[in-house]
Amino acid sequence: MHQGEELKRIRKKRRIKMQVIADAIGIKPNSLHYLEATETLQYETLKKYCKVLNIPITHFHSDIKDEEEHLKESSNSYETVTHVGKRISELRKQKRFNVSDFAAALGYRNRQSVYSMEKRAEVDFEIIKKVSEILDVSLEDILGKKLLNTLSIQPQEEEEDKDLYEKDKKIMSLQEKIIELQDEVNRLNKLLNLRK
């Protein structure tokens, strides 16, 4: 069996984007083209790819007796995260990041943007990657099986992803402007009260 082609077939069948696989196994997307064209992959690489696709290594190596180990890992390793924002909030608190410092690390101008993100069940993948780096946790720690399942169940074309990312950035920017305007209104109200 041509391992690279089989992995590519499964990835496409599940509609998982190359970027998601590349990020999860720690390679560049253009390296994934090479892997998927390779007939026999190195065992460790194959094992990582299988883990991301949530298939047992025995799919390729029937002589390996780790099917039980795979099932145990896939059912116990990570809980399924249904609300990404809440999970980010939990991890932020575990890592003892206060909201102001976390907002600054993410490049936000205020805390409200963090609160807004933590209220969302779905968060843009680029932001999740940034959170992963800041909190020094894996993507699986944030997403659990969601990385493997939800992203592949709801595939989007690259242009749509960029569009969503841009919309998310605009929303965050507008929220920051609203907060600034609210601060200005409060300041002006205080000035008016002083004049009375």
Automatic annotation (TrEMBL):
Q: Which SMART domains match?
A: HTH_XRE
The record, for Pfam families, names:
HTH_26, HTH_3
GO MF term (any one) = DNA binding
* Record domain HTH cro/C1-type: where: 7-60, 88-142
User: From what superkingdom does this record's organism come?
Assistant: Bacteria
Keywords associated with the record: Coiled coil, DNA-binding
As recorded in UniProt, coiled-coil segments are 164-191
Give the InterPro entries listed for this entry. Answer: Cro/C1-type_HTH, Lambda_DNA-bd_dom_sf
Q: What is this protein called?
A: Helix-turn-helix domain-containing protein
